[in-house]
């Protein structure tokens, strides 16, 4: 693991985005419970890690994050940055009072936001695509992640049961 | 055959979780899955790609088996383990569960080696065992923190 190859615009971009997004996470009113806030951050981190280490590295290796294929500290910071987007997804789900009928529009909206962010990331040299991979293929990734997030949250947000008593689910 | 075996074992783990008596809530089970997935991916990458202690197959189907093992089977085993650990009140019971999971995870590594999904270069089962115990401990402590915070 290395820190970075060259500290230039992609690193500055990550730093600025981290300050901006985590500043928002801290300052925004807490509209969802702590268990959801934590889980959203872990989910955002895990999903970005999963895709980067599966299609962005190893045998498939469709893109390079930051300056090289090596694991850089700034790669880790990118996953920490992505964690906040899952948080915002759930936050605005509550703010906009999204339900079953409006979830599809919400996901489409977030996909447009994510695509725009990806375009800026490419311009900032955060991601370099290779082996025929095109930026628009990310739409599939966005739709998969956001659909899972939306359906999961919609299904379990009202599930108040905490089965510490040992009672099995569904009974 | 290596891919089929990993797939069948993953399928079995899914059904064990589906049918088992769960002590953890849905959110807690998800938390355990995501934590193990994230830590597991990072450790696997550092060990194989950065330190070159293990080599991973270049065969497409076996690589799919590797991804399935890393991203579904292993985290699901930890989910089963944590449900069992929180079910037992005694330390001995909990340690027995952790020991059983350790043996199972090492046996799975044996399967991966036997079918040449991975190859140990400068790695061995003792180091693998240390990694598994460390991951079990980290998962347990993070889950306890999550339960406290939530």
3D structure, described in words:
- Chain A: Keywords: Membrane, Transmembrane, Transmembrane helix.
- Chain B: Keywords: Membrane, Transmembrane, Transmembrane helix.
- The complex is a heterodimer of chains A (171) and B (150).
- Chain A is built from five helices and two strands.
- Chain A is mainly α and 171 residues long.
- Chain A has one domain.
- Chain A has a two-stranded antiparallel sheet with strand order 1-2.
- In chain A, helix 2 packs across helix 3, helix 3 packs across helix 5 and helix 4 packs across helix 5.
- Chain A is globular.
- The C terminus of chain A is likely disordered.
- Chain B is mainly alpha-helical.
- Chain B has one domain.
- Chain B has a two-stranded antiparallel sheet.
- In chain B, helix 2 packs antiparallel against helix 5 and helix 3 packs antiparallel against helix 4.
- The termini of chain B are far apart.
- At the A-B interface, helix 2 of A face helix 2 and helix 3 of B.
Summarize the structure.
The complex is a heterodimer of chains A (171) and B (150). Chain A is mostly helical. Chain A has five helices and two strands; from the N terminus they run ααβααβα.
Which whole number gives the mean pLDDT of chain B?
Answer: 95
Strand order of the largest sheet of chain B: 1-2
Number of domains of chain B: 1
Helix content of chain A: 55-70%
Percent of residues in helices of chain B comes to over 70%
Total number of β-strand segments of chain A? 2
Number of discrete helical segments of chain B:
5
How confident is the prediction overall: mean pLDDT of chain A?
86
Distance between the termini of chain B: 43 Å
How do the helices and strands follow one another from N- to C-terminus of chain B? Answer: HHEHHEH
Find the biggest chain interface: A-B, 30 and 30 residues
Tell me the number of structural domains of chain A: 1
How big a fraction of the residues of chain B is strand?
under 5%
Oligomer: heterodimer
Poorly predicted runs of chain A are 161-171
Give the low-pLDDT segments of chain B.
Answer: none
Structural class of chain B: mainly alpha
